[in-house]
Amino acid sequence: LRNATTSTLFQSPAALRRLLSALAILEQREGKLNTGSLSAVTAAQKLGGSVHGFVAGSSIKSVADEAAKVEGLEKVIVVDSAAYDKGLPENYAPLLVENIKKGGYTHVVAGNTAFGKNVLPRVAALLDSQQISDITAIEDDKTFVRPIYAGNAIATVESSDAVKVITVRGTAFPAAAIGGGSAAVEDGVDPKVESQTEWVSEDLATSDRPDLATAGKVVSGGRGLKSKEEFDKIMNPLADSLGAAVGASRAAVDSGYADNSLQVGQTGKVVAPQLYLAVGISGAIQHLAGMKDSKVIAAINKDADAPIFQVADVGLVGDLFEKVPELTEKLKA
Ligand code: FAD
């Protein structure tokens, strides 16, 4: 495989397609395809070879049918088993490895999501590959671009591994469209690995607001909000007046003002909405790593020297407890 990959430069496009084949891992939750994971399909298409999708879980037929309509997929590999519903890495990784080996894939691509970050390192270890994480661009089938040091440097890395195991940054690859595709659906292999890990329960923060990772507008609150009560009182009406998702800095999360799932930044979610409004957030480098690619950045902070103003397109210096309710009222009107 290694020889095949290195010689691809001298192959015709048709021969290249035969040599390169990518498996894009699709996520599902409660029988619904997670469209955010379709970034993996877009990235896999850029490799130039054939692209198959992979999805597993119980009563998977409706997810598989939806996945078959995803543009750019030639085939959808499906494993119907409740054992894979929650994406536990202990059994999901061996499941993927069996299917990767069976399909002879040269590339495995997943989103750099909680699921991708959980499962793919195990897949890479089992395949004896060096994982390439959180890529933002593909130069060719073995050369990838990824931010390092919280986005302060951009590394271009080349892999000589037989199977390249890759996670992609969702904001760098738009999700593949659903509708135009007509992929064949095929049963994958189920190794039925005995796992010592059992799914017990989950406690999810639910919200009617848009999903933070894919929202077009995000309003984020920081330590300046002072308490959970104030955070909810100030940020929720602001979000609703804009139809925005709510985000938070790590200081706000660590102080218990906001749920951990709302954290934006190096160790939280990476977002790139049309509008990002930072309220009472200083703009630490680790926070900027999660939002600096937003199209328009606005900030409200009482400190005119706060670093957030260095990246903001629009800034308002003032007390957030005064300015935000005023802004919310004006937006509602
Ligand atoms: P602060 O830095 O305390 O800023 C609060 C701001 O609110 C100040 O600028 C202040 O002027 C303003 N303010 C206060 N009161 C008011 C008021 N009444 N009106 C208007 N403005 C007001 N951080 C993240 O956010 N996300 C991450 O993913 C992340 N990952 C990290 C990973 C590592 C390894 C490390 C070391 C740190 C990480 N951090 C992360 C933490 C980061 O360094 C900062 O500590 C954090 O972002 C600060 O959050 P903040 O801006 O809310 O708080």
Tell me what the structure shows:
This protein has 333 residues and is of the alpha/beta class. The protein has eleven helices and 17 strands. It has helices at 2-6, 13-19, 39-46, 61-68, 89-103, 114-126, 228-242, 250-254, 285-288, 308-311, 320-332, and strands spanning 21-25, 28-29, 32-33, 50-57, 75-80, 107-111, 132-135, 137-140, 143-148, 153-158, 164-168, 184-187, 217-221, 245-248, 275-279, 296-301, 314-317. The strands form four sheets. It has a seven-stranded parallel β-sheet, with helices on both faces. Strands 14-13-15-16-17 form a five-stranded parallel β-sheet. Strand 9 and strand 10 form a beta hairpin. Helix 5 (89-103) crosses helix 6 (114-126) and helix 7 (228-242) packs parallel to helix 11. Mean pLDDT is 93; it is low at 1-9. The protein binds flavin-adenine dinucleotide. Its cofactor is FAD.
Shape: elongated
**Order of helices and strands, N to C?**
HHEEEHEHEHEHEEEEEEEHEHEHEHEH
**Largest beta-sheet details:** 7 strands, parallel
State the helical fraction: 25-40%
Number of strands: 17
Q: Structural class, judged by helices and strands? A: alpha/beta
Question: What is the averaged pLDDT score?
Answer: 93
Number of helices: 11
Gyration radius over CA? 21 Å
List the SSEs and their pairings.
Elements: H1 2-6, H2 13-19, E1 21-25, E2 28-29, E3 32-33, H3 39-46, E4 50-57, H4 61-68, E5 75-80, H5 89-103, E6 107-111, H6 114-126, E7 132-135, E8 137-140, E9 143-148, E10 153-158, E11 164-168, E12 184-187, E13 217-221, H7 228-242, E14 245-248, H8 250-254, E15 275-279, H9 285-288, E16 296-301, H10 308-311, E17 314-317, H11 320-332
Parallel strand pairs: 1-4, 1-6, 4-5, 5-12, 6-11, 7-11, 13-14, 13-15, 15-16, 16-17
Antiparallel strand pairs: 2-3, 8-9, 9-10
The protein binds flavin-adenine dinucleotide.
